[in-house]
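Limitations
The structure tokens in this dataset are predictions for the assembled complex, not deposited experimental models. Users should treat interface geometry with appropriate caution, especially where small molecules or nucleic acid strands are included. An illustrative entry is reproduced here so readers can see what is and is not provided.
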Amino acid sequence: MKLVLHTQPEVPLEAEVISPDFLNGKTADEVAALTLFHGNNEVPLSEFFDVSGEIENAHIEVEGDLTKVKLLGHKMSDGSLTIKGSVGAHLGAEMTGGEILVEGNAGDWIGREMSGGRIIIKGDAGHLVGSAVRGSATGMLGGEIIIQGNARNEVGNGMRRGLIAIGGDSGDFTGVNMKAGTIFVLGKLGQRPGAGMIRGSIISTQSAELLPTFTYNTTFQPSFLRNYMIYFRKLGLDIRKEYIDGEYQRWSGDSLELNKGEILLYAD
Amino acid sequence: MSEESKVIKNAVCTFCGCVCDDIELTVDPAGKHITKANNACVLGKAWFLEHKVEDYPVALIDGKEASLKDAVEAAAQIFVSAKFPAIYGLSDTTCEAQKEAVAIADYVNGNIDTTTSVCHGPTGMAFQGVGESTASLGEIKNRADFVMYWGGNPAEAHPRHFERYAVTAKGANTPNGKDDRHVAMVDIRPTPSSLIADTFLQIKPGSDFELLWAMRALVKDAALDDSVEERTGISKAVLEELVERMKNCQFGVIFFGMGLTMTRGRHFNAGALLELATDLNQYTHFVALPTRGHGNVTGADNVVSWQTGFPFGVNFNRGYPRFNPGEYTTSDILGRGEADALCVIASDPASNFSAKAIEHIKKIPVITLDPKPTVTSSLAKVAFTTATYGINVPGTVYRMDNVALSLRPAFDSPFPSDQMVLKAIKERVCELRGLNQTTKTTAA
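Predicted assembly:
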């Protein structure tokens, strides 16, 4: 099934119904009649989208400049959602399975509190990728988020499990308050990575300025990185050979917490 | 009108967050302006003495003079036809008016945000994230023997903070005022405030978080790398001595300003400072308080919190309150071009928001309530002139330590109060939408 945005929303459009779980088994007409929130107005989906085709293999394609459209793929558990264009905030929030592919940029809060499935962004992402909501201590619980471009601040804020890979640079406070899980940044880390981290791994192929509560341990060749890097190559990230075979500095922290987190920085 | 000047004792100054309630005002016999403001600081004197009731129209629609009734109607029409109406400002008005504004946001399923989002909003987020150890300024005056100011310049921004509450003030356990206290100041440059400090740490710009993290490590006896001096400009030895002093005081307090909350790191900076205060409670009694700017910005946080559950950046689009700074804060929704109507109460976003946000303000219908013309009111579709709180309007305001105080106005104004205008708009909105005001819990 294909949904094409025909009218640009004036104010944010909340479209959590555009998710394979919700659309499965519905005809194009039934989908067109579903309700979206355009600001404080309830409107039928057809007011903004042309719907065509039938759902096959739980696959949905959405096309257009969707930067003002929020919550696509909300709570999805299965199937696949392909977005041709840039997308707004809360993409794949609380998703538990399935795959989202964005052929453009994405807004803030991608995959917030997700626990399974995979999100791939071919462009850049906003703030708080795979993060907790404000007031909650726990972010992403599982699954994978792959961003080929850059991401902004607070990547993986409070994450407990799962994998985030950023092809470009990340913003400040990458992996802040993380409990566990893995964050790869192939570009540069912003300021203060891993502040308040308890466990987990943050890996960067560039040098970084770390907080004074991180201590240097050793330089070694982590064999597990090899598997990850080869996996990222398959997912479309550009991985140089030296990052696969090279040595990495290991720093442990945050000493204000358990000191069991690690930051690995490529040592050239 | 009597021939004698009227004197108002214990009047309340609403210029800054100190909300001094010991001002003695003398009003001229004609009851048109204040001639004396004893006890007020230089900012307070300017606030009271320069206030005059000027001859503005009570309301303008599209820049043309209009009656109050017509302007209320026009404002209500803007609210009910908008899909994403945003209400902003609120820090320089009474709690009673703030309450009406929240009710309107609820009835029109709009967005409500206060100037907190551009000053101590990060502090509000940090309170939610890590908690708050706090005290009233009275308790601090009577007990605190260690006082620290971080990223603020109270000598110029809150001139009576030192004498009334925290430095030279004499209290039950601090009978000798400053001699009974150790005063520490952290800033990126010397200021008039830092002259009074016993310890002044001049840190490298943008290194607040690193310094706070290093101090926390020393308090908790955790591993600390020597790079701290290179990063912050403060040696480990100086920090160790300071932290030792903090651990050994009887009652410590850290006041923090926008130098901490509005620099890179924002809510994490505020959170780190609050956590430092929490960590120090392993050793002694320690509290941390933001030094709030506007007269009733603390009231705005309180009112929006007790009516919606969240302090600022609250959205009612779906009929229930949602809080998300960055998503529902006014500078962001305007910057992304999301709101389709804006109501500004006692603030001037058109003069201090980003160019993108101001560009959007020019495209949408704006309602303003302000005692004086502002840049925003000059762009407004509907502009109300309202009476000034504290000078003309009675009501409740909150001091920066969340203590509620009642205003004692000096003289009457020909203009309506913010509360009267907002209440009239609210009632008209309810009529237009066919709502029964008693059915919603947040109704005034």
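Some entries come with short summary sentences. For this one: The mean pLDDT of chain B is 95.
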